[in-house]
Design goal:
By secondary structure, the protein is of the alpha+beta class. It contains eleven helices and five strands, in the order H-E-H-E-E-H-E-H-E-H-H-H-H-H-H-H. It has helices at about 1-10, 25-40, 65-80, 95-115, 120-140, 140-145, 145-160, 160-170, 175-185, 185-200, 210-225; strands at about 15-20, 45-50, 50-55, 85, 120. A five-stranded mixed β-sheet has the order 2-3-1-4-5, with helices on both faces. Helix 4 (about 95-115) crosses helix 5, helix 8 packs across helix 9 (about 175-185) and helix 9 (about 175-185) packs across helix 10 (about 185-200). The longest helix has 19 residues, at about 210-225. The chain is elongated. The N and C termini lie far apart (about 45 Å).
């Protein structure tokens, strides 16, 4: 009955925001909740454990509306000491518990990798979340493709920059001209480097499936640079 009543008054899509106040009290949480819910009539919220504030935004019809929500939360985060995370969009209010987990986990992973940041979103952090959980479950050695280990060892031994070239190539959607421009070299130089990388690792980096796996592996390497095993799991 509660779900049906809510759906009849507040239309999808929804986004859940989780605000974490490390040193807050209930008065601060309720003030923030009241201010946001009054500012945005499509929002309801509740506090939990005297540190968390859950805010459910409805009728989030596009990125413009989402940006307004983010601007509001960011302005408040500058006035008060809290960080926040946003779930992905969802349309079925019955899946709210899953998106609560999603938002909390986004914040947990994001703050572990970027302790100084205040804002995290599931969409922006998706690759970090996948990589972080894989590393946490399998460990570093089992998480990285052997091909990237080969390339990293070659770069270190020969003082080359093949890993940087490959990462830039993927970041620019495998566009030779844009990659060359970003690295301030001629496109033929990038072409020769890619040929050498293919020769070294025995995989054609221009093949979509290979590129997809290596791109994920490069993100895994980036996450590992900031990854810290929680003390209780040492």
């Amino acid at each position: 009955q509660v779900i049906n009543a809510y759906e009849s008054q507040f239309s999808p899509p929804y986004v859940l925001a989780v605000l974490y106040f490390p040193n807050a009290n209930e008065v601060e949480l309720q003030y923030t909740r009241g201010y946001i819910c009054k500012t945005d009539p499509n929002t309801i919220g509740c506090s939990s454990e005297s540190q968390y504030l859950y805010l459910l935004f409805s009728s989030v019809s596009g990125h413009a509306v989402l940006q307004e929500i983010e601007d509001l939360l960011f302005r408040l985060s500058l006035q008060q000491t809290f960080c926040y995370s946003l779930s992905d969009f969802f349309s079925d209010i019955r899946t709210l518990p899953d998106h609560r987990v999603q938002a909390i986990h986004t914040q947990s992973v994001g703050s572990s990798l970027n302790p100084t940041r205040k804002r995290f979103s599931f969409r922006d952090s998706y690759m970090d979340i996948i990589c972080y959980n894989t590393i946490e479950r399998l460990g570093e050695n089992a998480s990285l493709p052997y091909a990237l280990r080969q390339l990293a060892a070659f770069d270190k031994r020969e003082q080359s920059d093949f890993l940087t070239t490959l990462s830039c190539y993927f970041d620019h959607l495998c566009n030779l001209s844009e990659t060359a421009s970003a690295l301030a070299v001629h496109p033929n130089t990038i072409r020769l480097r890619l040929n050498k990388i293919t020769e070294l690792i025995g995989l054609d980096v221009r093949d979509f499936e290979v590129a997809r796996q290596l791109y994920t592996g490069l993100n895994m390497m980036r996450v590992l640079q900031h990854y810290h095993v929680p003390e209780q799991n040492q």
